[in-house]
Amino acid sequence: MMGDISRSDTRQLRRVDLHVGETGFGDPEDPQRVAAVLDVETTGLDLEVDRVIELAVRRFQYDSGGHITEIGRAWCWREDPGMPLSEDIVRITGITDQDLIGRRIDDRMATNIIASADVVIAHNAAFDRPMVEKRLTALPTMQWACSCVEINWAAAGFEGRSLGWLCAQAGWFYDAHRAQGDVDALIQLLRHERTDGRPLLYELDGSSSRDSFLIEAVGSAFPTKDALRMRGYRWNPKDQVWWREVMDHHLVAEQTWLASEVYASGKGAKALGPRLTRRDAFSRYR
């Protein structure tokens, strides 16, 4: 006979539902910054050939403690890419060719809204930034932050980095794989408090302001590719090099690993060490 299910055996999720206006949190007298959270849906994952079919943006104000003090209205545009969508994209996003006929992003409005912020936040800035900047060519060079990699999710008590799974662990659900849903879910998640009581936005705001280093394992031997992949390096087919980006405080540890596993005697490397490029929030993810 099945026993009664206690409250500890169940978990309720609430739908993400942001409200425009002041939040009642934080210190409105504190110097405020403005963030623009954005997300795109595209025809595919190729940064060179694929196109944006949906762009969503929402701005908010926050104080020095990372508390969101005011939330702005949602903006969302669709655009006809001039090509049929693949079955996978239709299945994932729910957007059809019919939904996009004659639609176009308002370049001027979208650019002005994003450019009015102090920082642009995306959950996968390495993809969203180049796609947005390719589409909105008048967008100035701005400070970007990536919530996926610039928050220590494990230390905050989370598993994984998928936006939907992170939200579920925080007690929320939303309509995933639609640009506006992803934007609102990320804002809700940034309000979540870490174990020290500070919002996750506080950590993101601090980490995004630090420098990082683009590390390219030039001259690495073919047999070391699996080790590089397991370490988190990605293959750049254009430049024929394995690369990853680390924040400045992780650089020494990464150089030590490369010296031992890629550039040590007997590893077959054709260079003495990696190529390093210092980057900041204005140049990262481009």
What does this molecule look like?
The chain is an alpha/beta fold and 286 residues long. The protein has nine helices and twelve strands. Strands 2-5-4-3-6-7 form a six-stranded mixed beta sheet, with helices on both faces. The chain has a four-stranded antiparallel beta sheet with strand order 10-11-9-12, with helices on one face. A hairpin with a 5-residue loop joins strand 4 and strand 5. Helix 5 (163-170) crosses helix 6. The chain is globular and about 60 Å long. The chain starts with 13 loop residues before the first strand and ends in a 7-residue tail after the last strand. Mean pLDDT is 93; it is low at 1-6.
Task: Report the uncertain regions.
Answer: 1-6
**What fraction of residues sit in β-strands?**
15-25%
- Overall number of strands: 12
Main sheet summary: 6 strands, mixed
Tell me the helix content: 25-40%
Helical run tally: 9
SSE pattern: EEEEEHHHEHEHEHHEHEEHE
Record the strand order, biggest sheet: 2-5-4-3-6-7
Helix-strand makeup class: alpha/beta
Ends: how far apart?
59 Å
Give the overall form.
globular
Task: Compute the CA-based radius of gyration.
Answer: 21 Å
State mean pLDDT (0 to 100 scale).
Answer: 93
